[in-house]
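Quick one:
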Amino acid sequence: MNERYMQRALELATLGRGHFSPNPMVGCVIVHEPTQRILGEGWHQRYGEAHAERNAILSVRPEDEALLPESTAYVTLEPCSHVGKQPPCADLLIEKGVGRVVCCNDDPNPLVGGQGFQKLRDAGITVERGLLKEDGRLLNARFFTFMEKQRPYIMLKWAETSDGFIAGENGRPVQISGPLSQRLVHRWRADEDAIMVGTNTARTDNPRLNVRLFPGAGKNPTRIVIDKYLRLDTGLNLFDNTQPTLCYNFLKQETVGQTTYVQLDPGQPVLPQLLADLYQRRIQSVLVEGGTTLLQSFIDAGLWDEMRVFRSPTMLGNTLPGAGLKAPAVQGRLTSRQPVGDDELSIYRL
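Output:
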């Protein structure tokens, strides 16, 4: 098995970022083993369109197709075996006579779940699994979380001052992160299915929750707000019907334009109900942007997968009680730390 070809497949898979959900990101590299020559490459470019294996096969020159029985397809995820929006990739690999298939991960989707591998083996194709499997799981952390935990991947994001505050007194908005960090966050928004804020943040910040600071980044995410008793002013930006918006509440179930009011049971915990509903809507990932109460509720419930924390050199200048709203306490394992302009970005995972 050759790790460098799988690394290339993983790189190709990331080219579909922001356009693949609710499917996984997948890359494929086809290598003629005797000569170690790459015959074809492909990735899943957009949901509903051709999968990585099909794109890789299509990129093989007609005069090279006769070499496929001596070739290996390096694929980041088990080839699908069922008919969805596209025909089964396993069938195509069999039809083209590919000699060997090497994968990072088994597909956790019960519609596939080992059946793709079995179909390949039954056709006499050698199958090898588990090459760079941790890299594969990290690449598709959203997809694996969605399939295995039956809820979206939850990413908590906030910016805090060097003295540990996320906002001013009584939640008053304070500009903490720098312009480069703000643009980066808008780029992130385009990668996720949804973005979420709580009632207080919606009221005090009046956010738009779109990708306006990063033109060309991709689609605007679905907006989510919790407003239990529908006390938010419908003139807020969240309710301007410029993008799909979900408002979770205890009072009504109704759709007005692009705004859907989803009624929850007041006798049950909010977050499990909300996540179960998002799962049914096939929303695979949620970027939670605050405020502190909402962020802390996810932390306390253990319903999160990643934290992205910007730390700014800014100080509120007064650390006495009442000077500001304290940021949530960081948890998890630090996986990276890097400068973003004058800020420092730290990423933590469970």
